[in-house]
Amino acid sequence: MSKTVLVIKWAVFILIFITSSALCQYDMVEIDNSVFGDPARPPSVFEHDAHNENAGLDECNICHHVYEDGKKLEYESSEDMYCSDCHSVKSENGSPSLRKAFHMNCKGCHLEQKAGPVLCGECHRK
Ligand code: HEC
Ligand code: HEC
Ligand code: HEC
Ligand code: HEC
Known about the structure:
By secondary structure, the protein is mainly α. It has one domain: Cytochrome C3 (Alpha-Beta Complex). The protein is built from 4 helices and 2 strands, in the order H-H-E-E-H-H. Strands 1-2 form a two-stranded antiparallel ribbon. A hairpin with a 2-residue loop joins strand 1 and strand 2. The relative contact order is 0.11. Bound molecules: heme C (4 copies).
């Protein structure tokens, strides 16, 4: 194999690696709170992949859900969307406000499973 072909192969490989990891956000360590405009608290800690692995959460739609006529669709997932695409900062259309949606989802499960933080400063740390 010629040297140029090898160099091109490596360049393509590295390019694919960089773009795919940027799209997947495997490095997410906290929740982006910029939609709140002037957030009162530091963003909540959330190491996406490590969190879900430690907590044993295999189904993406435990969090990334889709509803139709008030019913959660068992096999649908909305992982390509932000929570704020459906839950606005001010509550409307019967779905909980963004802040409430986050708190119900995160704290709700932590309380239910008696694992994971429930105090303000344990999530909004820094
Ligand atoms: C289990 C984690 C968790 C706990 C516990 C928690 N929050 Fe949050 N909270 C979040 C997440 C996630 C958001 C979404 C944006 C972010 O990360 O700040 C949020 C958003 C907010 C917001 C709207 C954004 C802002 O900063 O203005 C406020 C206010 C807030 N929380 C206050 C509180 C208070 C007060 C408590 C304690 C009574 C609390 N939170 C406990 C996870 C948590
Ligand atoms: C414990 C809840 C939870 C589980 C389970 C979960 N996620 Fe997430 N995920 C989140 C939250 C919260 C965000 C941040 C959403 C936001 O900022 O609005 C997020 C963000 C993402 C993003 C980035 C979205 C973006 O806009 O950049 C992707 C991709 C993603 N999740 C994929 C997945 C996949 C795939 C699974 C299943 C293997 C999964 N998630 C399971 C809570 C979860
Ligand atoms: C495609 C739109 C959509 C997306 C994206 C979405 N939600 Fe929802 N969610 C809804 C609707 C609609 C309801 C109201 C269901 C009802 O009670 O009728 C709801 C209800 C909820 C509830 C209350 C019911 C329950 O399941 O406990 C919580 C909590 C919640 N969402 C959190 C979140 C979080 C956190 C995210 C992001 C990880 C998210 N949602 C993403 C549409 C969405
Ligand atoms: C369906 C259940 C479930 C949901 C939803 C959930 N968690 Fe957790 N979380 C857990 C469990 C279980 C643990 C404890 C895991 C362990 O023992 O290591 C945990 C631990 C944590 C921890 C402590 C570990 C660490 O990384 O520092 C943080 C912070 C946390 N969760 C934040 C969040 C936030 C923020 C959300 C909402 C976006 C959320 N969790 C949603 C189940 C859940």
